[in-house]
Write a structure and sequence with these properties.
- Pfam families: PKD_2 (PF16407).
- By secondary structure, the protein is mainly beta.
- Helices cover 7% and strands 48% of the residues.
- The chain contains four helices and 36 strands.
- A hairpin with a 3-residue loop joins β28 and β29.
- The radius of gyration is 28 Å and the shape is elongated.
Length: 507
Amino acid sequence: MKTIKLFLGYLIAIIMLYSCIDDEGNYDYTELKTVVISNVSSNWSTPLGEEYVITPVIDYGGADSTEFVYAWVSEIQEEWSDTISREKVLRYTFKEIARYMTVFIVEHVPTGSLTSKQIDINTVSRYSTGWTILSEQNNKSILSYVRAEQAGENEITYNLFENIYTELRGDDLGTGPIRLGRHFSSASDEILVIQESGAVEISGLDFSKVITTKEEFVKKDYPSGFVPKQAEYGSRLEAILGTDGNLYTRINPNGSFQVCQYNDVPAISNAKIANMYYCAYLGYIYMYDELNHRMIGMYDSPQLYTEKIIYVSMHPDSTHLPTFTPINNMGEGTQVMYIDSYSVEGASGRDFVQIIKKGSDYYFQTYKAAFPALGDANLYVYGGKEELFVGNGYVNDNSKYCMDGSSYFYFTAGNVLYYWDRVSKVEPYYTFPGGATILDIERYAYEDREEIAVGLDNGEFYILDASFEAMTGQKEKVLFKAENLGRVVDVQYKYGNSSNFNQQSRQ
């Protein structure tokens, strides 16, 4: 074994750096010409983070195979070199997106003769799209990932990568998990993890830490009193909200990551923002200002108007139901619990849906919103309707909501996911066993997939079939279930890049 250790030292220091595997130079080894290595070849698309196996075929030239030992030495882009295995069959998990120059060495122990084979292994991410799960175990932030894979013509299987950040990176993500955020470029995505130990951006390709949110401010530190609560990333406008209600923004000039910094002066003065909403092609980030009891917005695009404040007002010529709470003056104490919207074919603007709370009751609002002209500072609301929410007797301040355009509305209460047909029918869609509380839900629908992801406080995560066939009992509702993930605080679909998000997320 001394011979192979000496050889590996030479290999790393000289042979790998100069790609002279067969140069016998001044170091003492001889090639065993009768040994032939096959079935070891370069691979330009080795999956990152998953065990990769190479099974060499060796012709020992009549020698006793028990007289041989093996080593796999890999160099990553001239940054480091290491012996990654001493077994004949390589079983290794590559954890960086990189080119690995790898050498397989076969040593004939009695003679010290060495035979080698050099290959290139390029790792690629297979984590582009799927479900991300943020959970808490022993106060630690745990980020897991579920990938959907086509198993047959009409069959999808789900592959869980539990605690993927720690598995790939080897350290802890942080503590006190709170919420996830989506951040896209045209090529990839980043995942914002808001947590008590400090918000951080995670690469969507390899789940490595990219930057702390604190570093993304002009002074490399948060403004006084700022604690991150929520972030929304538009096509140009990026906004981060603090628990103090202050909103800070930056303008992204080219759609890349970390090319600009957040201002350290609040974007809207004399306001206290409670929550924000954004969807693909909306054109602005929408939010509720609880200080002034109003909806307000900021232009995302086009470039000419980015960051311009939008004031929402009731259209003077539109008929609103008398019960409709004016969007520009919702009254002291009103809370906006949920905001969403959907597009109607052939109509301009968006149809909005809101759950608001007044006193101890919850109300369901619908209205349309459109600009008189692009760039106008006024967003007109018309066709407003409001009714006591059909789930008023079920929901509480911790309930979660999602919707299927204008067709179905979903909400949670305790361990039950309910659905409402937007007319009269309200029924439990799925009751989760054991009495655990649902902490988050999100819907994803594109082409043949219609899913609702559900996270519970007992560490369980479900993907439910939300198709009409499942709703009517023609198919099983549970597509996938994971357990022991820790208290699941947020679930979020990972679209992978801005193109997928723009194409697949609109209802």
